[in-house]
Amino acid sequence: LADGDGLDIIRAAQQFDLPPAVIAITAFSSRDTRQAALDAGASAFLAKPFAIAEFSSLVEDLMSRRHDGP
């Protein structure tokens, strides 16, 4: 991104009254990258390549948490 990176977007999203669930997806996966995304407020982290079933399951889980409450 020209003006920052994905972590900046995740941090900005956390400023909303009702922050969205965010799945950080990257091709440059490392333990540090994963931790940085989660620390920034990501709800989950996926490294490319990933299975569509894994992504779908993660989305369903995040949606059910949102509907069930904290």
Can you count the helices?
Answer: 3
Rounded mean pLDDT is: 92
The helix-and-strand class reads: mainly alpha
CA radius of gyration is: 13 Å
Report the sheet with the most strands, covering strand number, pairing sense and barrel closure. 2 strands, parallel
- Kindly report how far apart the N and C termini lie: 32 Å
**Approximate strand percentage:** 5-15%
Given as residue ranges, the uncertain stretches (5+ residues, pLDDT < 50) are none
Seen as an oligomer or otherwise, the chain set is single chain
| Strand neighbour order, sheet with most strands | 1-2
- Helices and strands, in N-to-C order? HEHEH
* Tertiary shape: globular
SS elements, strand count: 2
